Amino acid sequence: MTMNLAVALGAIVSLLVLIGLRVPIGLALGVVSLIGLMIVRSTESALGIFADLPFEFGANWSLSAVPMFLLMGSIAFHTGMTGSLFHAARLWLSGLPGGLAVATNFASAGFAAASGSSLATAAAMGRLAIPEMLRMRYDPALATGVVAASGTLGSLIPPSILFVLYGWFTETSIGALLIAGLLPGLLTAFVYAAMIIGRCIANPQLAPRGDDHITWGQRWAVLLEIWPIPLLVLSVIGGIYSGIATATEAAALGALMALLISLARGKLTWLAFRTSVTEALESTASIFFVAIGALLLTRLLALAGLPTIMAASISDFALDPLYLIIGVSIVYLILGCFLDPLGLMLLTLPVFQPMFQAVHLDLIWVGVIVVKYIEIGLLTPPVGLNAYVVKGVVGNAVPLTTIFRGLAWFIGAEAIIMVLLIAFPEISTYLPSKMMP
Predict the structure, then answer these.
(1) Which residues form the domain of 315?
(2) What's the number of domains the chain is made of?
(3) Cα separation, 325 vs 171, whole angstroms
(4) Is the whole-model pTM more than 0.85?
(5) Tell me: the pLDDT tens digits for 274-309?
(6) What does the alpha-carbon distance between residue 101 and residue 48 come to, in Å, rounded to a whole number?
């Protein structure tokens, strides 16, 4: 047992070293796990596991939600369904202090509900909103920071690819997880908005008021342009919440609805359809490659006995659940500075899940906490991926240091949000508890 434990711990250390050397995380997971399995078992056994696990994973019916959600988001983006969101939010919210930044924040929440991707949300809203805010002489740190931060809502507001994978990995209801992310996602958007408005009241120079005179007629008229997004969201969330459809069926329904809506609007060209399908396939392959590597690591750790030892240790010391959440929080905050979201989640869950189960934590609540910390990792230097996405959009117009300076305020807001989510688990668990069976 001591030998196997040393192999398991050595595998984890080797993984961190390889990731630090910029080896692709899927490749690092696969290679280290395969070598570890050869040592713990035998070459023949390791190759047998390596041959069977990818098929077992890929044939899992619940994971077909991943390409369907990705396809839905790609069709919505490439057929222009999301383009009017910022325009509508700007007309309705421009009268507030920092109105364009607040509009960007809520438009990103709407985009996230169609795409399920934080990086896609940040990239799309960056192209739409940042030039407009800079034209209105907004502080560059605020203009870029709000786009990078609100882009993370794509990881939380359903549909969320991370929730699908977390649910599969922990054998938790994917539908319940998707619904659980709704209130925390809205809470995040409103806390961001309150912070922006408060800052702009205290320092009006951050966001000068525009001279545009917007009529109520314009405000009501623009709502006619954004009907596809609410329809998409309601078809997915409503199907899951009412019990009419499973998460997988709702994902397929969302992709079908996106296709039918784009056809009805006359926006579905052959190029848009081909690009959407190609993007969904490429993203699915990338996600599955990392997930298969994580599955191999999980098998290695199980055969080495690490989860059993960790669970026994927790039972022996009667660890308080709050202490465990605080410890996990510290780990995610540190690793989130260096790892990509998918890799971070799939690398840590094999280690942490036995701990969560040993102290009887609600895995739906824990899932929201984990995804929130992954969101924060998208904002923290040196590898805050959303900051680099925004930097790619603005080019040399705004330095990377300015973007991270703007994000510091949003990370402060995230600290408040995390305290609320940990102190009041009902924020995450209330809606799933009311779902139809």
Answers:
(1) 2-433
(2) 1
(3) 20
(4) no
(5) 998 998 888 788 778 877 877 787 778 777 776 566
(6) 54
